[in-house]
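dumping this here so i dont lose it
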């Protein structure tokens, strides 16, 4: 059964991108890390609850920022840069206005489906798009732009932006749900 799941083409395609891999990893972290903290019998219950909640919030907020802000900015930004500046004469960037449209094209199963899609785009835009000007090599170029920008976004997002932002949000959230109480302010004697 596991072999059937792993060798399934849909499963394989879904796990090939940087974003999919990091989403799976961070999603598992958001469940597994708090779970292991809660299973530890050597930690007092209040500390366990606080630590598990903090870890869950950190991983969850990081994942939300990653998927909702960081990856869309990097992916769409790099694609626009490639389309408008770096590779503006490449037909693949002219045919597909954004990375999401290109990824749908890339996932088409057969060569005939790709030819049909290129024909539809040609009719809609008035340009001629075919396998001569949109070859496998140009597909690799566009996919490389998308994947490399996702990788850069992953590194900067999950290593720099998410930790700085998530840690600022965790304490107020824990306070709102009652896991952190304000310390009474002590007066200083002059």
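and the seq i came up w/
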């Amino acid at each position: 059964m596991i072999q059937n799941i792993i060798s399934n083409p849909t499963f394989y395609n879904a796990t090939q991108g940087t974003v999919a891999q990091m989403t799976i990893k961070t999603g598992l972290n958001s469940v597994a890390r708090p779970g292991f903290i809660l299973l530890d019998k050597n930690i007092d219950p209040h500390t366990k609850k606080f630590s598990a909640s903090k870890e869950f919030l950190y991983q969850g907020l990081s994942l939300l920022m990653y998927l909702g802000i960081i990856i869309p900015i990097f992916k769409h930004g790099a694609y626009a840069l490639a389309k408008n500046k770096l590779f503006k004469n490449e037909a693949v960037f002219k045919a597909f206005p954004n990375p999401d449209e290109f990824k749908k094209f890339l996932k088409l199963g057969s060569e005939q489906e790709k030819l049909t899609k290129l024909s539809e785009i040609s009719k809609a835009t008035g340009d001629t798009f075919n396998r001569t000007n949109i070859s496998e090599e140009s597909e690799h170029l566009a996919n490389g732009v998308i994947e490399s920008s996702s990788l850069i976004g992953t590194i900067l997002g999950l290593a720099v932006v998410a930790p700085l932002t998530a840690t600022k949000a965790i304490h107020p959230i824990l306070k709102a749900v009652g896991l952190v109480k304000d310390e009474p302010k002590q007066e200083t004697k002059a």
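The mean pLDDT is 80.
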